[in-house]
Amino acid sequence: MLDVLLQQINKLVYQTSEGMVHPGLTAEWVLAVLSIMMLLTIWMMRKTTATSQLNYSVVTSISNLPFVGKNIQQLITHPTVITGLRIFTAVVFLMVIAAGLFGTQVTERNLATTLTWTIWWSGVVISVFFVGSAWCAICPWDAIATWLVRRRLWKRGSELSSLNIKVPKVIRNIWPALMMFVVLTWLELGYGITTSPYATALLALLIVVLATVSLAIYERKAFCRYFCAVGRTLGAYGGIAPVALRPIDNAVCASCKTLECYNGTADIEPCPTHLVMGRIKQNTYCTSCGSCTQSCPYQNISWQLRNIGDEITFSSRPHWDEAWFILGLLSLTIFHGFTMMPYWEGWMSQLAYTIGDSGQLLVSFSIGMLVAMLVPILFYSAMVSVMHRLINKQEEWKRVFSAMALSILPLAFAYHIAHNLTHLVRESQGFLSVVMNPFGTNTLPLSMQEIHMRHMNPVINDNIVFALQATLILFGFWLALKILRRRVLQYTGFTINQGRIIFIPMLVFILSISILNLWLLMQPMIMRM
């Protein structure tokens, strides 16, 4: 009976596939994940725990680790380490731009497209799980902008190098970053810059120009805090990471009057995103740039280890704009999955025929993207409205909306990595040959035999990839339930038994999105290059 069911599910999933596609998650894995998800749901609804029993875990400073702690502390307080890494990433970045502008326009043979869309974007999201927002510390966009404006390799530049205008209040939030994320997604998937080395290079140059102009006009690094979609994505996901920059001894920070971590020193720049280390509670705006570790006269700042997801569960406090950014992350990651399905083009063609769209189908794509973004947002808003009524307190709807947003962030994070794993393990083959010939000189497009060999011989075995994807979906679902449980108990002051019904609307949302993500992973996915 079970074999027949699995065959029917696989038939339903794969009957629409055509061309060269990545295989989707098998029905056996899907049923296993669904079974565990049901057990986790029952556990959460039955377990009774008072709010006071849910405590933040104890963190461990890396500087206190035996044998290696002191050496690591010396490394992160010395500017040459980060400066050296920034120089390296800047050189690679300039090579990407040169390859995109002057190299072959064959997508899979050019460094600009293969490194940017297959290696870097997948790798930078995965890296959050291990090093938080550390990528921002060596970001070439910020590095080049800083060197151009400050005219210093690492030391603090003159105040006269920038106009130092205070950022207008109307954009002192991350709405600009969300808008940038939407525009980048539209360019990536609608305009097709992922398949154009030249367009990829132009986009990279545009972002450097935006970072440079922002630094030349506004105080500190407004681009990093308010405008950068990549930085804000890493900042949001950073709350899940098991590492973060934090004070070694909170008492030292509490007694500090000079606040070098915020103000900087004669040689070290101030915190680029206006953070005081002794008061920091979440990673959202920390770029891990190292200014605080280098400027602190007490060397009281270090990387710390904590349980995965503890920050986002216990201490994060999302605001209205941050909640919307999280929703945008969720919607756009799901949208990416839809656009990689073999029948997406058929849907767009049918829509184009219906509305009379011609040309590159950009109007049809834009409509599809808008609908794909609105559906999760409207669904979430509806569930928040139901929860708001069930709470039966004089609370603003906006507060409930913002408070519950953190519970859906793990769903976006888990699917984001699971989706990119497929691209990474299958489309990264041949990357070494691209590195050896970054401009793709005298190369031809991949032959059918080469495409077939890449498809049949992934870097990692399919079963391992499926196991990782299933584990990621379960991890996202479990952490989402954990955060929801904590937030509802904290928000209402009830125990599970007293307020069990309050959980149901958001539980329905979390379960629905998890099943949708699982279904998307089952679909055969078109190879990007």
Molecular structure report:
- With 529 residues, the chain is mostly helical.
- The protein has two domains: 17-47 and 315-526, no CATH class; 79-155 and 166-227, no CATH class.
- Helices cover 64% and strands 3% of the residues.
- The chain is built from 24 helices and five strands.
- The chain has helices at residues 2-14, 27-46, 69-76, 79-102, 111-131, 134-137, 140-150, 175-191, 197-217, 222-227, 229-237, 250-255, 260-263, 291-295, 310-315, 320-339, 344-355, 362-391, 397-405, 409-427, 431-436, 448-456, 462-492, 496-522, and strands at residues 21-22, 60-61, 243-247, 301-305, 525-526.
- A three-stranded antiparallel β-sheet has the order 2-4-3. Strands 1-5 form a two-stranded antiparallel ribbon.
- Helix 5 (111-131) crosses helix 9 (197-217), helix 16 packs parallel to helix 20 (409-427) and helix 23 runs antiparallel to helix 24 (496-522).
- The relative contact order is 0.15.
- The model is unreliable at 4-19 and 50-54 (pLDDT under 50).
